[in-house]
Amino acid sequence: MQSNDARTLLQSAVPTAVAGVVAVVVSGVLAGGKGALGAAVGTLVAGGVMALGLFVLQRTARSLPHLFQSMGLVLYVVQFLISAVVLAVFRDTTLFNTRAFAFALLAAVLVWTGAQTRAHLKAKILYVDPESVDAHAKKSAPAGSAT
After folding, report:
1. DSSP conformational letter for 141
2. Per residue in 27-62, pLDDT tens?
């Protein structure tokens, strides 16, 4: 994993974990132990789905850079569908409070998406390799030039 990829993961996971802790506390106060458990499970599911998506997107960018943008769009649809399937599967469970689960999952996904967007906006990732441009400029310099 490249350093900027690890930084993006960290800058997305930490705010999501903080939002998850807040969701667990609020759900625990409002809905008791089952609410806290539901919020914790919702946060873990959202964090897992989003982290897996980031990992898949990074692998795609390295191996198939020409598919990066389309893979990103497909990935967001798949993440949405996975979240919807998880919500549907646990809709009638009695293990935890489903309302706390759903709200925590939604909050965690929104926080992760916002934090990931901020991380990408703040990252200073070069889209042109300056070394290759310099090497090309030296090769194509006219004869007798000072370089």
Report:
1. S
2. 999 998 999 999 999 999 999 999 998 888 888 878
Closest CA to 9 of 58, 61, 62, 73: 58
| Total-model pTM | 0.75
**Residues 6 or more apart from 145 whose CB is under 8 A from it?**
none
Give 104-123 as a DSSP string.
Answer: HHHHHHHHHHHHHHHHHHH-
Task: Identify whether the C-beta of residue 107 lies closer than 8 Å to the C-beta of residue 15.
Answer: no
Q: How far apart are CA 24 and CA 108, in angstroms?
A: 11
Please write the tens of the pLDDT for every residue from 75-92.
Answer: 889 988 998 898 889 888
- Range list of H helices, 2-97: 3-63, 68-89
